[in-house]
Amino acid sequence: MGKLAMIRQRLRLRFTKLGDLRFVGHRDLVRTLLRLFRRAGLKLSMSAGYHPKPRLSVLAALAVGIAGSDEVAELELAEALTADQFLAVVAPHSPTGLTLRSATVLAPGSAKAEVVRMRFQLPVPASRQPALEQRMRALLASASHEVCRAGRPTPVDIRPFVQALTLADDQLHMILRVTQRGSPRPREVLAALHVDDLEQAGCFLTRTQVELKG
Fold first, then answer.
1. Are 111 and 52 contacting, i.e. CB atoms less than 8 angstroms apart?
2. Which residues span the domain enclosing 198?
3. Residues 95 and 144 in one domain
4. Domain membership flag for residue 97
5. pTM for the full model?
6. Rounded distance, CA 182 to CA 156, Å?
C-alpha cells in the first residue's frame, strides 16, 4: 500500500490582542496562541529537524503595552478544515482579549504575507489637541526626522515611513508604511509629536489595522 499524502493546510488568521493581553510580549503571544490551538484539539503541522516546532508565525510584532484589534498570524495544520470549522472549534477556548475575527484558507504554494502599512490610534485629551495639530503639520511638512535607537551607531530617519497623521473624534490616527528598509516604531512618532506621555496617563495606543500586500 502506498503512503498516505501528508495534509498541510495553511490559514491566515486575524485576531485581537486587547485588555491585559496588551502587556503580553511577542513570544508569550505565540505561546498563548499555541496553547489555544492545542486546547481546541487541532492537529498542528510541525517543522522538520531534530527540534520540530509548530508552523505558526505572528506578523509585525507589537511592543509590550500596545493593543491590537486586527493582528495577523499564519498557521499550518496537519488536517483539512474549512475556515468556519476552524473558527467554531477555536472560539470556545479563546482567552479574554483574544478573539479570532476571521480565518482564510490559503491556496497551496501561496506566498507568505507581507505587511505594507499599519494603522494606529491614540486617545488625545481636548486640551492637548491644538498643540498636537501644529506638531502634526510640522512633521508632515518636514523632509526628515531622525531618531536614535539603542544599539544603532547612526540615527534612523522615520519621516519616509509616516504616510498620514490625522486627528478625529478625539483620537490621533497614524498610518505608517512598512518597507524593505524597515518601518518606524509608533512610539517614536508619538515622541516626535510630544504626546508619548499620554500612555502613562492611561491613554492606550492601539494598532487598528495591519494591511498586507496584494
1. no
2. 115-212
3. no
4. yes
5. 0.92
6. 10
Rounded distance between C-alpha atoms, residue 110 and residue 135, angstroms: 42
Report d(CA 116, CA 180) in Å as an integer. Answer: 9
Three cell numbers at 79?
A: 488536517
Together in a domain, 119 and 207: yes
3-class state of residue 38 by DSSP: helix
- pLDDT tens, residue by residue, 25-54: 999 999 999 999 999 999 999 988 888 899
> Within a 10 A sphere around the Cβ of 152, how many other Cβ atoms?
9
161/193 same-domain check? yes
Output phi, psi for 199, to 5 deg: -60, -40
C-alpha–C-alpha distance, residues 20 and 29, integer Å: 12
Exposed/middle/buried for residue 83 (C-beta within 10 Å: 0-12, 13-18, 19+): middle
